[in-house]
Write a structure and sequence with these properties.
Layout lengths: L5 H13 L4 E3 L20 H10 L4 E3 L3 H4 L19 H4 L3 H16 L3 E5 L3 H13 L5 E5 L19 H6 L2 H14 L4 H14 L3 E9 L14 E9 L2 E8 L1
Parallel strand pairs: 1-2, 3-4
Antiparallel strand pairs: 5-6, 6-7
Length: 250
């Protein structure tokens, strides 16, 4: 959705290793914003984005207007189950993945790409898009690239610019708590006590937690034991007015 940072550009670099031509779409999608989310305030930095994409050797940027993607009379919306109904992001943003699925289906059809890369930071979204492509027989192969992080562990995100200086100093606590929980679970400790320790640590750092959970990495169903894995930890928490998400493999 624009406001590009090094994490986005790493997708361009990864794509160049897989394909001779790389197309980037930049589109702030109104269909994935809920009633309480301010679509008009999302950062829009297209001139700077285009400079970054040129430096990363992207071949084309498709940056359509809203009216081009959703012309007058547009009346179709994709609704999904499976990973889109995992009681994670969908619990707090119930219309979000319908908007994501609808615009991604359009973009994949428009581009006709052989492969499409998505970052693992939006892990539930990645699984939703993989399911979408499988279920609708979209020929594009969906690939993923790892989350890029700042030197202190904070996942790179366009929303990080909203953090105050004090919030930015506190922000890495989310990832650090998840790291420790993943280490404990991998070492054989019971999952829920490890998560409770992580939640307490994140709360003490000033976050208000939406969720911090362990899920089966391929389906997002809840897990109770290590042998239910592979396991992915997923979290969303608010620091001041900024909502951060993250995930980590166990």
């Amino acid at each position: 959705m624009g406001a590009l940072h090094a994490g986005h550009l790493s997708l361009v670099e990864a794509a160049r290793r897989d394909a001779p031509r790389v197309v980037v779409t930049v589109f702030v999608n109104p269909a994935q914003f809920g009633p309480s989310e301010d679509f008009t305030k999302y950062p829009r930095t297209l001139p700077a984005d285009l400079e970054k994409l040129e430096s990363a050797a992207a071949d084309l940027c498709f940056a359509p207007a809203v009216e081009e993607m959703y012309p007058h009379g547009f009346a179709t919306r994709i609704e999904m189950d499976g990973p889109a109904r995992a009681d994670l992001e969908d619990r707090f943003r119930p219309t979000h993945f319908s908007g994501v699925a609808t615009v991604v289906a359009k973009l994949l059809n428009q581009a006709g790409a052989d492969v499409a890369l998505f970052g693992e930071k939006d892990y539930q979204q990645l699984l939703v898009i993989r399911q979408l492509a499988r279920d609708l027989d979209i020929a594009t192969r969906i690939l993923s690239a790892p989350t890029l992080r700042e030197t202190d562990g904070l996942a790179m995100s366009s929303r990080n610019v909203y953090l105050s200086a004090a919030e930015r100093r506190a922000a890495p606590a989310l990832f650090l708590a998840m790291q420790e929980a993943a280490r404990r679970i991998a070492a054989g400790e019971a999952i829920e006590p490890c998560l409770e320790i992580a939640r307490k640590s994140v709360g003490e750092a000033g976050f208000v937690i939406d969720y911090l959970e362990a899920r089966q990495a391929e389906t997002l169903v809840r897990v109770a034991r290590r042998r239910d894995g592979p396991i992915r930890l997923l979290a969303a928490a608010r620091l001041g007015a900024t909502r951060l998400i993250d995930n980590l493999a166990v």
